[in-house]
Amino acid sequence: RAFALSACRFKRTDSFNSGQRTGFTEDEVEEQDGDFIEDSEVEELFQEQAPEGITGGQHRVFIIQPDVKWGRKKQHLTTAELMMAEAVGLVNTLDNWRVVDTVILSTKTPEKKRIFGKGNFQFLTEKIRQTSGITAVFVNVERLSPLSEVKLEEAWGVKVFDRYSVVLHIFRCNARTKEAKLQISLAEIPLLRSRLKNEISNMDQQGGGARYIGGSGETLFEVQQRLLKEREMKICSALEKLRRKRHLLRSQRTHREFPVVSVLGYTNCGKTTLIKALTGDSGLQPRNQLFATLDVTVHAGQLPSRMTVLYVDTIGFLSQLPHQLIDSFSATMEDIKHSDLLIHVRDISHPETVNQKVNVLNILKNLEIPERLMSSMVEVHNKTDLVDSYQSAEPSALPISALEERGLDQLKKAVEEQIVKSTGKHIFDLKVDLSTPQLSWLYKEATVRDVQVNADDGSAVVKVIISNAAYGRYKKLFTGR
């Protein structure tokens, strides 16, 4: 199952020389809507009960990639070798974690507690015990059951991670904004619950887990469950405040009639580099790293007509993550649904580019993105500079190199064409009287493409891109209709 993550951070950006503001800071919006959340409150929730073993410290990791030969768990658009390469990339993303060894091992029993058959499991156990310095094992599966995690840790004597816990740790390390931290804390709740059951089960076996606490009538397990539930409710309440703030931001953008273009794709496909190239925003610092961008940022850019649009750097997708993790972040996906256009960026140099495209489209389908956005989506083949003699097998896709800024003019034209269609804007030639404020009003409220002045009668013919609402205001102000 594919996964998408975004958290919300909006920047203040000047709309080139127009003096218009195209973004809003968090503090400004919080002052307006009254839903201010103290940093200390968020930090307390974020740090209160992080899952043991995935925060801080360092690990020397042994990676195991199960190779499922058949059945519903078999991957058809990728290979075990490519999945292993992504797992290595995930571990290398983390500071102070490094891969000490890897193994790809076939299995017919991925649903079993120990994942592998008796012979392969024995082989693994011996290899792990004989490799010096291992402090953790990463089994590259979506999610290990609590019982599987216990059994594997007992057999191998080190901490065992699955994809869920490794990616959560990456998110935790990269989280910067309030919303990102809160959503990560919410995503950790299922992990904390499953580990709590394991701990209580072990205590029961030792004769201490079922005792009541201080005459309260609650067992230790019930107390811990209640505390987790209270923490979950606090996080959800804080996220709801931020959701209302995001709704206000969206309303403000709509009021100013700036078209919104969401740029999305598989993690590390080059979204941030592309937005930097389209906008010239020197503050953007792309990194060649999985999940380098966790927080949504908004950046103003101009199209060939000089129309200002807002490019939203939103999504990093990753395959094979469980539903609970997706649910924690789904609220921020509302921004995509309210876009005027989607740009799907693909790393065309990646050996799994087809599989990555399928993952992106699947998650958009699961999020019930409106058909108008899916049908108008612009597909971009990025990193063509890394492909010898690149030729696209998909004629509708636009080949570019964001790093070398190749193909951007064609992309901007395609974006402009789709934006005019999707926003219901019109292109008009309007005759204006230069002795009135008509021309300055059009510069402020519409996109002026061209001005042809007739000095003899003090008029001009102005070619503009203008919305229905703005055109209605124009007629009411200057033509009396």
Describe this structure in words.
With 481 residues, this protein is an alpha/beta fold. It folds into 3 domains: 39-204 and 217-256, GTPase HflX, N-terminal domain (Rossmann fold); 257-422, Rossmann fold (3-Layer(aba) Sandwich); 425-479, Alpha-Beta Plaits (2-Layer Sandwich). The chain has helices at 26-33, 39-48, 80-93, 118-130, 146-156, 163-174, 178-205, 220-255, 271-279, 323-329, 334-337, 353-366, 371-376, 408-423, 438-445, 468-478; strands spanning 3-5, 7-8, 59-68, 97-107, 136-139, 159-161, 260-265, 295-302, 308-313, 316-318, 341-347, 378-382, 398-399, 426-433, 447-454, 459-466. It has a 7-stranded mixed β-sheet with strand order 2-8-9-7-11-12-13, with helices on both faces. Strands 4-3-5-6 form a 4-stranded parallel β-sheet, sandwiched between helices. The chain has a 3-stranded antiparallel β-sheet with strand order 14-16-15. A hairpin with a 5-residue loop joins strand 8 (295-302) and strand 9 (308-313). Helix 1 (26-33) packs across helix 8 and helix 6 (163-174) packs across helix 7 (178-205).
